[in-house]
């Protein structure tokens, strides 16, 4: 089971068209585009496997170890039941401080869940990163007006992800690892 967080903003950054203007057109309305200096955003956690995706969890902007363990308890465990049933699985997470805290390691041991040893400062090899990118591209034309509309748009787009899409992304992992190893960008032992 692969997990990660991603930030979604009402304004999706510099994805809009560029405006070219001639001298003297700086204030011409067709050369102006409104922007928001600090757009509303939400942080989302989720997990996926080759069987599909789990339920989304919307996070506070800063998550400590206790908060993360609540996410694991109320979102990861139900996702594991949904995606794996009684089968064993290995959990993958990056090395964010809340993830690598001693209390979080103890939580995993207490629940009998093995955690994949993920390299620090590694390139983003986690296929869920690609899944977040796909969701953001599909949302590119959505124009939510507030955080609640943004959450609804994320939920609706996430619900469209099929197990086949997840399976394809996970199947790409050996090629990703090989490419990074060939470029000497990560350790060879996973």
Task: Set out the fold topology.
Elements: E1 2-9, E2 41-49, E3 52-53, E4 57-59, H1 65-84, H2 97-100, H3 102-110, H4 127-138, H5 147-158, H6 163-171, H7 173-182
Antiparallel strand pairs: 1-2, 2-3, 2-4
Structure, described:
The protein is of the alpha+beta class. Strands 1, 2, 3 and 4 form a 4-stranded antiparallel β-sheet that branches. The longest helix is centred in the middle third of the chain and has 20 residues. One of its GO terms (molecular function) is nucleic acid binding. This is Tc1-like transposase DDE domain-containing protein.
Record field, number of beta strands: 4
Distance between the termini: 15 Å
Number of separate helices = 7
Shape: globular
- Characterize the largest beta sheet: strand count, sense, and whether it forms a barrel: 4 strands, antiparallel
Mean pLDDT: 86
- The percentage helix is 40-55%
Structural class call reads alpha+beta
Uncertain runs with pLDDT below 50, 5 residues or more?
A: none
| Gyration radius, in Å | 19 Å
What is the string of helix and strand elements?
EEEEHHHHHHH
Strand proportion: 5-15%
GO molecular function, one term: nucleic acid binding
Pfam family, one: DDE_3
Protein name: Tc1-like transposase DDE domain-containing protein
Domain Tc1-like transposase DDE: 3-151
Short description:
This protein is of the alpha+beta class and 190 residues long. The chain has helices spanning 65-84, 97-100, 102-110, 127-138, 147-158, 163-171, 173-182; strands spanning 2-9, 41-49, 52-53, 57-59. Strands 1, 2, 3 and 4 form a 4-stranded antiparallel sheet that branches.
